[in-house]
Amino acid sequence: MKRIHTIVMVGLLTAVMMTMxxxxxxxxxxxxxxxxxxxxxxxxxxxxxxxxxxxxxLLRINNQTCTTSAALxxxxxxxxVDANEGYRALYPSNLLANVDADITEGxxxxxxxxxxxxxEFDGIDxxxxxxxxxxxxxxSLTFRNLCSLIKVVISSRMDAPFRLDSIGVDATVAFxxxxxxxxxEGGENDEVTMNENAKHSVSLAFPVSEAPEISQGxxxxxxxxxxxxxxxxxxxxxxxxxxxxxxxxxxxxDVALLxxxxxxxxxxxEELEQGYVDPISMGILPGEFSVAEGRKVHFSKGNLQYSxxxxxxxxxxxxYGTWRFADHQYDYVGSDNANIGENNTGWIxxxxxxxxxxxxxxxxxxxxxxxxxASDYFxxxxxxxxxxxxxxxxxxxxxxxxxxxxxxxxTKSEWNYLFRSRVDAQNKYGEAVVAGVNGVIILPDxxxxxxxxxxxxxxxxxxxxxVFSAAEWxxxxxxxxxxxPAAGYRNGTNVYSVGAEGRxxxxxxxxxxxxxxxxxxxxxFFSVNSTHPSEGCSVRLVTVxxxx
Length: 548
Prior knowledge:
By secondary structure, the protein is mostly beta strands. The protein has 5 helices and 38 strands. The strands form 11 sheets. A 7-stranded mixed β-barrel has the order 3-7-6-5-8-11-12.
């Protein structure tokens, strides 16, 4: 099922499908008809809801990424498709583990179900982008569900209403997100199967503008859907994460999610406990790291990235652009940072100093600043009354809690303490290759190696003194390890040393002009180094306080 609406859409479906049945060929291109299977016994027709296409929906068809048009309820057109003997389609296209994958031959198509799903509202109801697949040797594609749904029904007996920030689901055995494969052959057995590297958890996160207020009352029932693959009977833990660090926990026994089905769990909130955050939807990694005596932090799940597209909340208002964390710790933008500029809507991740977007009174305070002149940049410490110059303090980060003030950048002394002064510091970092990417691994305070091998600390030998596949890194990350990729650096619009060097900002200045960062290459490591404020460096944020 593509998207679930509680209002049934009707229209000239027969006429539309007759129009689409005629294949339009032009210079090796065809127009396909896309129909979502919609009989009451079909895979997509569950929970008395009607699936709908929208214009501009992205699909992968064979080796192309295509979009829908002329959408009308459960039917749409897909134009400019390369003519072929058969057409295999996956929706949405961003489920592919490799966005450029050729799925023409079918078989086991590598996909990744998101660990954090974002709630979307269309003005009527929740839009649920359930994965679908289709295969046909004709130009008419019939799409069927590849996954199922967990339906969460919430009511409250609390006197005061509360804001719901996210819903977290953890299973004892079943895999709910992460790596898997999709079978798409055009039949009833089409489905997603998770592999051994998948995750037992999944979250539904509410953007600030869509976060619901849960109130008591016999008529106040709140329904939300979470996408998941089928699983046998499992015990699951469901947590509702509310405003101000409050939460409620529910244990559900023997929950089963059959193929093409819906599992309903009903939750009644009697009270909220204090002091828990949802680390998955907040982008918080599990490891604790001492950065000063009596002070510990958690790192974000990836390097900070920015795009000029969209809008986001800032301290005291709204600003253009979108901030997010990279999907994986080893991801970086690389040479595309050369496209930096006010009109660029792509992603960048190498920033000049104090370019959070907060107007510091200096010329270069926007994330896309490229001036070479040091006097154009804010060169005081980015703390105290100047804390808004810090990217994490000033901005809401889309997949990091989506509120300002949750994150911050380390100080010079904290970087130094992390690598030089905490207990056993010299044995808790080392150069490495993770998922084919060069960088440095930092181990948490309490560390147990999850793999049957030793970790080699230090620098100066080779990137490959520690090598971990993407699957192995999942185990390292789950045990608390952090990886900082060698993402290079930028001067103006020129990008250097991608894959060979890493430079990460601190909030501390060095004299009147220069500023401190942490930097490394294959043979050298500096917990504290000094650089020009115009230099574009990476940013890896930490939580303002230790997550509980």
